[in-house]
Specification:
Length: 310
């Protein structure tokens, strides 16, 4: 007899965990969160997990508290004799620290992988890592999903003529090229230089956007400087419309103001991170059904290949 499945959530990911559990067809497991006066906190399970297949949903936006809470929940499930413990991390924080890009810096993504393994996780499910090679940092299975399963149907529903797929920087060319090949469209690239983190120096567009409907693809939008500047340059070069698609709406600092004031027609994101405020240009598509389907397939030892489009 197979071990029963239970889905739990960290404190700040209940908004998406409830949707995943509902899509799967069960109620979200009961947890409690105790906070001490000095800021220390302790999550706990308010129901048995002994012998259960435990899925813990927690995105690590505002990464430190949410990450550490996830680690504590993994440890608690393991100590409570859960059969398997799977971390469901729609947004994997610290993913931009995937290598040493200058002397005397840490590789944060590798350290997070080590911490999750040390806590006792058996498997990780995540989406659109900033760098694909982060999967190799783990010694446990990693199911790396892509928002293309959600974005491609939406893009097709727009019925746009003269469409072109764009990358906002050189690092995103592989992603943009995959979409361009699948959608059978041309591709353009924005080349930028950074003065320092979150501050763009010079930018130029490589490719023809005149008279085109542009689809900019990225894995995340942080301060929105890159996306909005690329859109502005493309508009000046004659683009008819410009839409941005990004999996993770980090949207920090001046991001919301920049998006509101930008020439972007629409910004499509997922709910891997909750929006901090309303914005008329932002449309959210939910990842809940996708994650619920993958959880079901993993639990029943089925292939998840059908969930990959691009």
């Amino acid at each position: 007899m197979q071990s029963p499945i239970k889905i739990f959530s960290g404190k700040n990911s209940i908004y998406i965990a409830e949707k995943i559990a509902a899509s799967y067809g069960i109620k979200l497991g009961k947890t409690a969160f105790e906070k001490f006066s000095d800021g220390e906190f302790q999550p706990s399970y308010e129901e048995t997990v002994r012998g259960n297949y435990v899925f813990i949903v927690q995105s690590t936006f505002m990464p430190t508290d949410n990450l550490f809470e996830l680690l504590l929940m993994i440890d608690a499930a393991r100590r409570a004799s859960a059969y398997k413990v799977v971390a469901v991390i729609p947004y994997f924080g610290f993913a931009r620290q995937d290598r040493k890009d200058k002397p005397r810096v840490s590789i944060g993504a590798k350290m997070v992988a080590n911490l999750l393994s040390a806590a006792g996780v058996d498997r990780v499910i995540t989406m659109d890592l900033h760098a694909d090679q982060i999967q190799g940092f783990f010694d446990v299975p990693v199911d790396h999903l892509y928002a293309s399963a959600l974005f491609v149907p939406y893009i097709r529903s727009l019925n746009l003529d003269n469409m072109v797929v764009a990358s906002p920087d050189m690092g995103g060319t592989k992603r943009a090229n995959s979409y361009a090949k699948f959608l059978k469209t041309p591709m353009v690239i924005s080349h930028k230089s950074r003065e320092k983190a979150n501050i763009i120096g010079e930018m130029k567009v490589i490719g023809d956007v005149k008279g085109k409907n542009v689809i900019i693809m990225d894995d995340m939008i942080d301060t929105a400087g890159t996306i909005t500047k690329a859109a502005e340059i493309m508009k000046r070069k004659g683009a008819l419309s410009i839409r941005a698609f990004a999996t993770h709406p980090v949207l920090s600092g001046p991001a919301y103001a920049r998006l509101r004031d930008s020439v972007l027609t629409e910004v499509v994101v997922t709910d891997s991170i909750p929006l901090k405020e309303e914005c008329e240009k932002i449309k959210v598509v939910s990842v809940a059904d996708l994650f619920a389907d993958v959880i079901d397939k993993i639990y029943n030892y089925q292939s998840i290949s059908s969930n990959f489009i691009v």
